[in-house]
Amino acid sequence: MPLSDTAIKNAKPSPDKPYKLPDEKGMYLLVHTNGGKYFRLDYRFSGKRKTLALGTYPETTLKEAHNKRDTAKKQISDGIDPNEHKKAVKQAKAENAANSFEVIAREWGAKKVETWEEKNNRSKRMLERNIFPWLGSKPITDILPKDILDCLRRIEERGTIETAHRTLQICGQVYRYAVATGRIDRDITPDLRGALPAAKGEHFAAITEPKAVAELLRAIDSYQGSLPSVCALKLASLVFVRPGELRAAEWQHIDLEAKEWRYLVSKTDVRHIVPLSDQAVAILQELHPLTGHGRYIFPSERTPRGDRCMSENTLNAALKRLGYGKDVMTAHGFRAMARTILDEVLGFRPDFIEHQLAHAVKDPNGRAYNRTAHLPERHKMMQSWADYLDGLKNGAQVIPFKKAV
Prior knowledge:
Elements: H1 5-10, E1 19-22, E2 27-31, E3 37-45, E4 48-57, H2 62-77, H3 82-98, H4 101-112, H5 122-130, H6 132-135, H7 145-157, H8 161-180, H9 210-221, H10 227-239, H11 243-247, E5 254-255, E6 260-265, E7 270-275, H12 278-291, H13 314-321, H14 333-344, H15 350-356, H16 375-393
């Protein structure tokens, strides 16, 4: 008699040994002494008797077990061993999972992006929101350029074309890592060049006229915010790094004795060195008793334990309270301020300035300079910059811009 759901439900374990309840076509229910109920199929293949596991009751229903039995019978008639086929499918799934886009992307992030484990890491957020839901589980070898473009189109439809371009760049870094680790033969993201509308390029308002810079510096000195906020504003003008890198600065990367700050540039994924002027060192020394016990130089005021850094809006909000709206001056604008005045007023070599801005700079032979290039000269430049700002703030004679010839 074939098995029924009632018979399976009423089957009680034997205290002595497992027993079988027979079904049709070689299938049966194996009832263990612990009460477990297992569907099995006995069959012969190449002259050998074998057993195939069809599932556990009640997770696998009787109908599902019958369907698996019939599939196995068809495989046997086609000359396929069901057990070997099952092992091959399982292995293929494991290999596909290990080579899925999400697995490789997270491996890349953990090894290549210094702040990857942080909750608000921008690259991770972009992938989790825009790529993983659609392509995360797919083997990276099966993904076509059109698949990535479909994801980018969704971002574009939200009206954030800059984010679409940035997401494509991140995908390219994941693909290059996959090539380097032998998971795929080539990076397919260059095939999408020109597929997206050109990004307009965000404009960051900046003050570059020395007289106006002097007024800004005096306003910052009078700011009544918290000590970390005041120190961050002061350092922003002295080190002119990207705002995200400033607010995420960590004490472990600061060497006050060598007067250097060494960290990984988030945008380009390269190591960078910021020489610290005497003025910058003094600011850090003033702040150290307050935040030096934690990870971040500028911790979030909303997390007393110091496990999160300052909010990305803090500096711009402080500038706004000082009367400098985003159409006049932004935290990012300190970079344009330094680049303009160091070149046009103080006359420092452009490659020194570009190195200090962590921009890609190449020598005459096309080779990228390393992070230590011109380091002694950059130390001098950063000290001269700090002294110049002090002079402006204290009312020294303003040096006019060089006139274009």
